[in-house]
Amino acid sequence: xxxxxxAPSLLGADPLNISGSIESLGNNFDWLxxxxxxxxxxxxxxxxxxxSRALRKKYPDAFIDAHLMTDNLxxxxxxxxxxxxxxxxxxxxTEPHLLHATLSTIKNAGIKAGIALCxxxxxxxxxxxxxxxxxxxxxxxxxxxxxxxxxxxxxEKVRELAGIRAAMKHSYVIxxxxxxxxxxxxxxxxxxxxxxxMGSAVFREKNPALWLEGLRVKIKExxxxxxxA
Length: 229
Fold this sequence. Notes:
This protein is α/β, with parallel strands linked by helices and 229 residues long. The protein has a single domain (5-228), classed as TIM Barrel. It is built from eight helices and eight strands. It has an eight-stranded parallel beta sheet with strand order 1-8-7-6-5-4-3-2. Helix 2 (49-58) links the parallel strand 2 and strand 3. The radius of gyration is 17 Å and the shape is globular. The two termini are 14 Å apart. The mean pLDDT is 95.
């Protein structure tokens, strides 16, 4: 059975008790997702490199998945390379002519490198660098704020990326972020997604660990039924 990973977004955690929110997940998560926003590329502000560094210190074995929704990568990227992040994802729309060099910089630092695509951005825009990517992140909402409605056409982009990966023998994982909940997550994963980012859907639950455990069982059952069909 194909593996899939849960990456709770700490943007949806209790801002006054983020450690408590992480502990509420138990062992039923795979990555910790950081939405890094600069108030310019997107209309919101969130975490900085010190937060990533603090997470690494408190959770030394965690996979910290940093998603940079920022301009000015010349300044921002070096700060996150030194922050303890396990992966760093940059947007295709930010300095697209430097995307190859940016991914190289991340990978040369020993960190997994990702490319993020906003909803209007086609896969063709990053076709020439997919062989470099460890991760491709499909935004299924307009980046900037949690709690938005899932954009259904995002699934076509996931299928396209899965098809290119198989045809070209690339090794990137496909991640999706935005509007994912218990009602659509199975369709998302069956479309070819490997990593699912969820924020408010997870942390609004009274018992996030139990909810994620039940969701994992539900998805595995759906995958078995899909494989049999």
